[in-house]
Amino acid sequence: MKITAALVKELRERTGAGMMECKKALTDNAGDVEAAIEAMRKSGQAKAAKKAGRIAAEGLVIIKQNDKNAAMVEVNCETDFVTKADDFKAFCEDVANTVLRNTPSNLEALQSSVEEARKNLIAKIGENINVRRFALMEANTDQLGVYLHGSRIGVLVEIEGAEQALIKDVAMHIAASRPLCISEDQVPADILAKEKDIFTAQAANSGKPANIIEKMVVGRIKKFLGEVTLLGQGFIKEPDKTIADLLKPSNATIKHFERFEVGEGIEKKTDNFADEVMQQVQQ
Predict the structure, then answer these.
(1) What's the predicted TM-score (pTM) here?
(2) Which of 16-25, 45-54, 159-168, 189-198 is most confident?
(3) Containing structural domain, residue 126
(4) For position 41, which CATH number holds?
(5) Burial code of 175-196, b = ≥16 C-beta within 10 A, e = fewer?
């Protein structure tokens, strides 16, 4: 029987399990949803499935390199306490090494290759665990910058025509300053339009003439672009000098960068600590 998206959706809604778990269970049980649910319960996946809906916003960023590539992964868990556990650290290391070894084409392929280990770890530590994202860059030692700030922020950056000291400085800057993209032409049109609408509304409230309002909006857009683009940002060590200014003497070019910060963009749930402990005890 063909495993359709509708069948996977139904099983996910009924079990709370992840997409890959549901797809595999349906495949193993010829598309029979009831049989898939029973099989998942028998195998102990029900415990992992129960936790799959819980928010995992803590975790680790890991970077691994070999002679060909550099891999960066973010793996999430529910509490900071688990990030210090050897089992969780080992799993994160294994995920990063899997990226280096298999060079997966997408996140689904990576998740599939570590799914069994993920489920076993969930059952062991009692928290939801999620392999959230990965980045893979060619490890050209002349151009690649790698920076890990503790275990929560990681950066990979490729810069052509720069010395390693400069590349490291830019990597550290990216970690600290959170650029959205490299240059102004890469800023998504929808984000730029939204900011322009906000600035226009703010300027209109000033009561100034239309021609003055237009200049105010242009000025604020320019400031915004300088804040969110890597080339336009003031260098953290010399704020009066932009990253573009920093690269100019060596005629260096930033080709690509990736920045991961644990939990960014995930809406965290705030619980009373005593209630959280009680919830763990009652499970």
Answers:
(1) 0.74
(2) 159-168
(3) 58-179+260-282
(4) 1.10.8.10
(5) bebebeebebeebeeeeeeebe
